[in-house]
């Protein structure tokens, strides 16, 4: 089984890379980036969070490593429906008060499940990057 890779749209955020990194480095803030009407059972602390996706599985996210202010590596928890990594990439633009950011997901998803989850996951990651952009407007 080959890895499934999903990359979100890149967004330019009206904030310094360090400010965006600090915000994302606290997983309590992730709730603001998720579609409220599609998640439930939210739980979080600074280094991990979990939530249930509507009519689907519980998704546990655990901070694996960070490289301030440019990268946050996240791994799936034990109860995830399949193993995955999610990497948040941040880089300053030519304007030091703006940051370009995107998410890269890589998961071991079987062919049957892949057909059902790629589009919703792509939509979720694009939604999250859009909400992050709005947060700093």
Summarize the structure.
The chain has about 140 residues and is an alpha+beta fold. It contains two helices and eight strands, in the order ββαββββββα.
Give the helices and strands, then pairings:
Layout (H helix, E strand, L loop, with lengths): L3 E4 L3 E3 L3 H8 L14 E7 L2 E6 L4 E10 L3 E6 L7 E9 L6 E9 L3 H25 L2
Antiparallel strand pairs: 1-8, 2-8, 3-4, 4-5, 5-6, 6-7, 7-8
Protein described:
Helix content is 24%, strand content 39%. It has 137 residues and is of the alpha+beta class. The chain has one domain (4-135): START domain (Alpha-D-Glucose-1,6-Bisphosphate, Chain A, domain 4, 2-Layer Sandwich). Strands 1, 2, 3, 4, 5, 6, 7 and 8 form an eight-stranded antiparallel sheet that branches. The radius of gyration is 14 Å and the shape is globular.
Distance between the termini: 41 Å
CATH architecture: 2-Layer Sandwich
Strand content: 35-45%
What is the fourth-level CATH superfamily? START domain
| Gyration radius over CA | 14 Å
The CATH class label is: Alpha Beta
Helix fraction, binned, reads 10-25%
Q: Report on the biggest sheet.
A: 8 strands, antiparallel
- Average of the residue pLDDT scores: 95
Order of helices and strands: EEHEEEEEEH
Task: Please give the domain count.
Answer: 1
Tags for this entry?
2 helices, 8 strands, 137 residues, eight-stranded antiparallel sheet, Alpha-D-Glucose-1,6-Bisphosphate, Chain A, domain 4, alpha+beta
